[in-house]
């Protein structure tokens, strides 16, 4: 694992193909997103796994609270810009963002789950509305008022 310069890993998510890793790293009161490449070496009996090319992604987001891989090349990220409000947005695997990547507003998101199939709904756990979903071309809809630990298989 490359140096985190005194940062602490708060959460991590592996891409479904096992090639990329996304980390939430906290340091100096901020939690940021870092994306790296997973390398495997060694034998089946003694595998060795390392993270290479770890780099900052979506640097404008200084308070990232939740992440989930959405397909092979992008993440769903919940975070805030400096002095801003929470937003849910797509971030590409190379760390880039675009204004069109911001998803419709939903408040107080604590967790997200996305599927590899982008036609399946994005799921979010919120403090006020419970479990909500966002289907392509739709608005957020409440699924359950109580629930937690969102996950798609895979």
UniProtKB/TrEMBL annotation:
InterPro entries: LpqB_C (IPR018910). It holds the Pfam family Gmad1. Residues 2-148 form the Lipoprotein LpqB C-terminal domain. It comes from the Bacteria. This is Lipoprotein LpqB C-terminal domain-containing protein. It comes from Streptomyces fulvorobeus.
